[in-house]
Design brief:
- α1 packs across α6.
- The two termini are 16 Å apart.
- The protein is mostly helical and 138 residues long.
- It is built from 7 helices and no strands.
- The protein has a single domain, classed as Orthogonal Bundle (Arc Repressor Mutant, subunit A), CATH 1.10.10.
Length: 138
């Protein structure tokens, strides 16, 4: 259950968010990462690389300090359509969604890449999401 514990730890590390909101943010972010058009964590890293922000994303996977990302950089990588969908899932504007994702994504990716290594496939993330749903809603 290390993946689940790490993901829940990332939620706990977010200041100023209500528990229900952070659960919704975690679920929506995991859906975003697992979108077939993104392709899991490896695809997310590629997306950031293509957006010119590969070094920032690499810092989240490494064992060193996570580099911050701004809401405008999140918008640059994910685009208005994806952020609009994320905002709709969270009940916030796309700008608010990009701000929340900018705060949350570095912590989440860091927690899902223990010891500075990405999981071998997105199935590990799928398993973590299933475990999380069972723990939160079961």
């Amino acid at each position: 259950m290390g993946l689940l514990d790490n993901a829940l730890g990332a939620i706990g590390g977010l200041s100023g968010m209500q528990a229900g909101g952070s659960n919704a943010l975690l679920e929506a972010t995991m859906k975003l990462i697992n979108d077939p058009k993104i392709g899991g964590l490896a695809g997310l890293m590629k997306l950031f690389q293509q957006g010119g922000l590969g070094e920032i994303a690499k810092s989240w996977v490494s064992t060193g300090q996570n580099l911050p990302i701004s809401p405008s950089q999140v918008q640059q990588v994910f685009g208005a359509d994806r952020l609009g969908q994320l905002g709709a899932q969270l009940g916030v504007s796309p700008d608010q969604a990009s701000g929340q994702l900018a705060d949350f994504l570095p912590k989440l990716v860091d927690s899902l890449s223990p010891k500075g290594v990405l999981p071998d496939s997105s199935t590990l993330v799928d398993q973590g999401l299933s475990l999380l749903k069972g723990k939160l809603f079961g």
